[in-house]
Design a protein that fits this description.
Number of helices: 2
Order of helices and strands: EHHEE
Largest sheet: 3 strands, antiparallel
Structural class: alpha+beta
Strand content: 15-25%
Strand order of the largest sheet: 1-2-3
Helix content: 25-40%
Number of strands: 3
């Protein structure tokens, strides 16, 4: 069964596995190669949801789609802002 899960440090090793699988298949979107890099990305996503973002970014929510203990997809939803056109998005 597919579950919709917020990023969590409970799944940092699982997230790293997903990143390494992407890299093995030639994808560059998730370029994190170590547990520390994966953990830092998860913490940034968690901060972003709380509105702690760099000035050139917008708050957003990230989600992982999981089957059992495997991340099979990801999604990010940004809050709409008048800043979107200014940021080139």
């Amino acid at each position: 069964m597919l579950a919709w899960v917020k990023p969590s440090l409970d799944f940092e090793a699982t997230f790293l596995d997903m990143c390494l699988e992407y890299a093995a298949n030639g994808e560059s979107h998730y370029s994190y190669k170590t547990l520390d890099e994966a953990k830092a990305k998860i913490l940034r996503d968690m901060d972003c949801e709380r509105g702690i973002v760099p000035k050139d970014r917008l708050p957003s929510r990230s989600f992982w789609f999981m089957t059992g203990d495997r991340i099979v997809g990801t999604s990010r939803i940004r809050r709409y802002s008048i800043l979107l056109p200014q940021n080139g998005e």
